[in-house]
Design brief:
alpha/beta; Dehydroquinate synthase-like, alpha domain; Rossmann fold; 10% strand; single chain; two-stranded antiparallel sheet
Length: 372
């Protein structure tokens, strides 16, 4: 992490906002990589971190473009596992130090990009985000996925979870439009979650005097509204769908940078999803995509907040996203359990309060909203 950004995000009235310098967006955007490297002045080599087979091919294509310009490249693949661990991050870091490059590129969905941002932070390098799917707003934000962050906090300490936003994002819609359909549903669910996240943030500001950023909240809500207005278009998973969805996800990621925390993008709906992930990991199960779970959580948290949860549910249906536990491949009993423990997932005040929901209240909530 750079010396400038080792200071607190907010010192008195000083605010530090980190956000991408450039965003290359659209068909064949990946071909702009040489312009990016020239701008960034990379000299000792480019280290690419990818996921499994599909994203590995994208990374190899990107590396071949870079190689043709006489620059060194190395590729580290995380494989096709659905989860990542501290060992994955440390393995990538060790390979990077062995390779000796001065620039990191994360190619793929959430896993490779999370590893890339942490490896870059740990080794003092800059990084580029090259998303291959529109599944969540981590493609543009400094935030790291919940389970990985939790593991690193427990084993190394919180400071090791800190990362920066990518200096550059290259979002090639010719690549992203071919991502699995579920990733579009997930991205949509992640975006509408901002509706309840911002409301939770406002509540914490009023009741707990938590710092609040109007600009951060407004950008997050704008991203949610764009997604809601184009739910039917996003369902089609065309190139134009990519443009709408990815632009909104990038906007949401930047709202985190503006706020200096994930508050505008993550509230009780995310805590519900994280609780489901904790339950699944304990049982050795694989859950739905993060944003799909967030979508279900948003329906229920909007109900608790007195918001228009029926419109949120209808828009999820328009986007082709699940609105029931069965559609999402979740056990209804796990949904109820997750609702009862969500308030303990992290130290963040939300509509769930400090004592959470009783099991009977959780079941009533899930049934009242049609989630189970």
């Amino acid at each position: 992490m750079s010396k400038l950004l080792r200071v607190s995000k907010m010192e008195g009235k000083l605010e530090i906002i980190e956000s991408p310098r450039y965003i290359f967006f659209g068909p064949k955007a990946i071909r702009k990589i040489i312009n990016v490297l020239d701008y960034m002045g990379s000299r000792t080599g480019v280290f690419l971190i990818s996921g499994g087979t599909a994203t590995r091919k994208v990374a190899e294509n990107l590396a071949s473009i870079i190689d043709q310009e006489g620059r060194r490249t190395g590729i580290y693949s995380l494989g096709s596992s659905s989860a990542i661990s501290l060992e994955d991050v440390e393995g990538a870091k060790d390979k990077l130090l062995e390779f000796g490059g001065d620039l990191v590129i994360g190619v793929g969905g959430g896993r490779p990009i999370d590893v890339a941002k942490l490896v870059a932070s740990w080794t003092g390098r800059r990084y580029i985000s090259v998303p291959t799917s529109p599944s969540h707003d981590g493609i543009a934000s400094p935030a790291v996925g919940f389970l990985l962050r939790k593991e690193i906090e427990e084993r190394l300490g919180r400071r090791w979870t800190k990362a920066e936003s990518p200096l550059v994002i290259i979002a090639d819609t010719d690549i992203i439009k071919n991502a699995p359909r579920d990733t579009f549903k997930s991205g949509f669910g992640d975006l509408i979650g901002k509706i309840t996240a911002v409301k939770d943030w406002e509540l914490a500001h009023k009741l707990k005097d938590e710092p609040y950023s109007e600009y951060g909240a407004s950008m997050a809500m704008l991203s949610a509204r764009i997604a809601m207005d184009h739910a039917g278009d996003i369902r089609l998973t065309l190139e134009e769908s990519c443009r709408i969805l990815v632009k909104a996800l990038i906007g949401s990621g930047i709202s985190i940078s503006i706020a200096g925390s994930s508050r505008p993008a993550s509230g009780s709906e995310h805590m519900f999803s994280h609780a489901l992930d904790v339950i699944a990991r304990r049982r050795g199960k694989r859950n739905s995509l993060h944003g799909i779970q967030v979508g279900l959580g948003t329906i229920m948290m909007a109900y608790l907040q007195g918001q228009d949860w029926r419109t949120i549910r209808r828009k999820l249906i328009e986007a082709g996203a699940p609105v029931t536990a069965e559609e999402a491949g979740l056990d209804p009993q796990d949904v109820i359990t997750a609702l009862t423990i969500a308030h303990k997932i992290r130290d963040r005040y939300t509509i769930l309060g400090e004592s959470g929901l009783t099991r009977s209240a959780a079941e009533k909530l899930a049934r009242s909203t049609g989630v189970i």
